[in-house]
Amino acid sequence: MTLKGTGSQGDLADIDNVEYDYRIVLNKDKKNKSADIRVGRERYGREDAEDEATVKLGKSVTLQGYRVKYVSNSKKVAKFEFKGPK
Prior knowledge:
Mean pLDDT: 86
Low-confidence stretches: none
Strand content: over 45%
Number of helices: 0
Order of helices and strands: EEEEEEEE
Shape: elongated
Strand order of the largest sheet: 1-8-7-6
Radius of gyration: 13 Å
Number of strands: 8
């Protein structure tokens, strides 16, 4: 996904009665070199579980079975890659 601005959120997947969503906020550190990422899981419309972590540019983290990598950041866009769930 490509992030324009300082934050974004949305749906990742709907699998049967389970929904995954994400939220990303770029930190205001030197050149936005880190971001706070949350991946949540809902079952039957209720929040079931949530993982949150700070990830640095070029690094990845696993949240709710999704591997999330902070791929790049320019002045206008930041790019993240989501893979999973496993």
